[in-house]
Design goal:
The protein is built from 10 helices and 10 strands. With 292 residues, it is an alpha/beta fold. It has a single domain, classed as TIM Barrel (Alpha-Beta Barrel). An 8-stranded mixed beta sheet has the order 1-4-5-6-7-8-9-10. Strands 2-3 form a two-stranded antiparallel sheet. Strand 7, helix 7 and strand 8 form a beta-alpha-beta unit. Helix 4 crosses helix 6 and helix 7 runs parallel beside helix 9.
């Protein structure tokens, strides 16, 4: 079977799906909170190597329906390169129904709506996008390489191209001193976006990026505890009123409480669950069972 270049990351919902590494690492790799690809040098794998890997995977998993293109930055590839991969996947996996990948702000900035629509036509139907925060200040502090305006513009392109978007927000990213700005501006941004899925996770820092994160953020960062995170979650859910219904999940392993529903329809139920958790009526996931 495939010999992956480790470490290998994928969204929770891609856990049982076939993963093909179109690239290795991340071409940006400067977000201060993220350690996922710090040990890798970004590489665009040769098309020949990737196509051969698809053929090998097809022999072992011929009934594959879903494929995730790794690592963190497949969409940095030129369209002709990506289309060749998508065409090969469809040729060798006849039951294929979905191809997905991560998308960075820079990816969507560089590609036109027409280029994205071309990728959609050839089978790329879902992207995972880290919004992280809607606050211009916090995005700058974490060196996201994006502004609320550029996030809005990029995701508007994806929507226009017909590509579904699964977005993530990081609770605790503003710490105790900036949490209200973080949540309020994030909700404001989300309410202008056509998202299909929205997930939250709780901030956690690998030791290898801790000093970089604190230095870039400034002296006023103070960690939120779990109950601060619950407050953030509740404030976010209370304000979300998107232009179209969005499937909401807090199923990442870092979360103190798993939630699922559709917003805004299930807002009251989700808020009630959070209130019960704050009162101790619903147990939080023990810290030793969480992961980042």
């Amino acid at each position: 079977m495939i010999n992956y270049d480790m470490p290998l990351y994928r969204p929770p919902s891609e856990g049982n799906n076939l993963i093909i590494q179109a690239t290795l690492g991340c071409s940006y790799n400067r977000c201060t909170f993220c350690s996922m690809y710090r040990g890798k040098t970004f590489t665009a794998r040769s098309l020949h190597e990737v196509l051969a890997e698809i053929e090998l995977a097809a022999k072992h998993r011929p009934d594959t329906r879903r494929v995730f293109l790794a690592d963190g930055d497949a969409l940095v590839l030129p369209n002709n390169h990506l289309i060749a991969i998508l065409v090969h996947l469809k040729k060798h996996l006849p039951r294929l129904t979905r191809v997905s990948s991560y998308a960075l702000p820079g990816n969507l900035k560089r590609k036109s709506v027409e280029e994205l629509a071309e990728l959609k036509e050839h089978g790329l139907t879902l992207i995972y996008y880290g919004i992280e925060s809607g606050s211009k200040t916090i995005l700058k502090k974490i060196r996201k390489g994006a502004t609320p305006e550029s996030i809005h513009a990029g995701l508007r392109k994806a929507h226009a191209a017909g590509i579904k978007v699964s977005a993530t927000v990081i609770l605790g990213l503003g710490g105790k001193n900036h949490w209200q700005e973080h949540i309020d501006e994030t909700a404001r941004l989300i309410n202008h976006l056509h998202l299909n899925y929205l997930s939250t996770l709780q901030l956690g820092l690998d030791p290898i990026v801790e000093s970089e994160f604190y230095k870039a953020f400034g002296d006023d960062f103070e960690w939120q505890d779990d109950y601060g995170m619950l407050q953030e979650q509740a404030r976010l859910i209370a304000q979300i009123n998107p232009p179209s219904p969005v499937i909401f999940r807090s199923n990442h392993a870092s979360n103190a409480i798993p939630l699922k529903g559709t917003l805004p329809k299930d807002r009251d139920r989700l808020l009630e669950q959070l209130q019960q958790a704050e009162k101790g009526e619903i147990s939080l996931v023990p810290e030793f069972l969480r992961g980042y």
